[in-house]
């Protein structure tokens, strides 16, 4: 099973939404993934993230904010994906077999629910493309701009 870690600064919004969306895409596409998210520091999962994800039938209500060191087997991932510039700069070094990607997304914190939905939809496009690439045996997209998703079957 391929292990994926999604990192952000506080593990409160973007990384949490990306984790839920990646799991949903993997289930929908039949790709066996072990998906985790973490932050460089732990806070709490923001209620707006829970709300906009519930609109997609993805339940984040039991998710907790955690640091990298709270994740099981924290140094053993095939993919480590950062979703904000701060986490990209603070991400630790991983062994040679780990592929790193940086998919930066706007922080929706403090914005309207429409802003949260826009970020959720961008995350969905990015991480669906990521899972599709894994399913199809293609290289995973190097950036958000390079990841126009293939239509779902």
- Give the integer mean of the pLDDT values: 88
Distance between the termini: 22 Å
Order of helices and strands: EHEHEHEH
Ranges with pLDDT <50 over ≥5 residues? Answer: 148-153
The CATH homologous superfamily: Response regulator
Any idea what the radius of gyration is? 14 Å
Strand order of the largest sheet: 2-1-3-4
Which topology does CATH recognise? Rossmann fold
Number of helices: 4
CATH class category: Alpha Beta
CATH architecture: 3-Layer(aba) Sandwich
Total individual domains: 1
Envelope shape:
globular
User: Which percent range fits the helix content?
Assistant: 25-40%
Structural class: alpha/beta
Q: Estimate the strand proportion.
A: 5-15%
Query: What's the total number of strands?
Result: 4
Biggest sheet statistics: 4 strands, parallel
Description:
With 153 residues, this protein is an alpha/beta fold. It has a single domain (2-146), classed as Rossmann fold (3-Layer(aba) Sandwich), CATH 3.40.50.2300. The protein contains four helices and four strands; from the N terminus they run E-H-E-H-E-H-E-H. The chain has a four-stranded parallel sheet with strand order 2-1-3-4. Strand 1, helix 1 and strand 2 form a beta-alpha-beta unit. Helix 1 crosses helix 4 (113-136) and helix 2 (47-54) packs across helix 4. The chain is globular and about 40 Å long. It starts with a strand and ends in a 17-residue tail after the last helix.
Question: Can you give keywords for this protein?
Answer:
153 residues; Arsenate reductase; Ptyr_pPase_sf; Rossmann fold; 4-stranded parallel sheet; alpha/beta; arsenical resistance; 4 helices
């Amino acid at each position: 099973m391929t292990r994926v870690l999604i990192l952000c600064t506080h593990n409160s919004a973007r990384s949490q939404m990306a984790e839920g969306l990646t799991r949903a895409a993997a289930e929908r596409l039949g790709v066996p993934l072990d998906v985790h998210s973490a932050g460089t520091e732990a806070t709490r999962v923001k209620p707006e993230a829970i709300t906009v994800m519930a609109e997609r039938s993805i339940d984040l209500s039991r998710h907790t904010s955690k640091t990298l060191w709270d994740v099981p087997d924290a140094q053993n991932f095939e993919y480590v994906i950062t979703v904000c510039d701060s986490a990209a700069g603070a991400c630790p070094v991983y062994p040679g077999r780990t592929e790193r990607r940086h998919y930066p997304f706007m922080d929706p914190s403090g914005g309207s629910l429409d802003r949260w939905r826009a970020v959720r939809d961008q995350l969905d496009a990015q991480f669906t493309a990521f899972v599709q690439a894994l399913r199809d045996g293609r290289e995973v997209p190097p950036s958000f701009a390079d990841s126009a998703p293939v239509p779902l079957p």
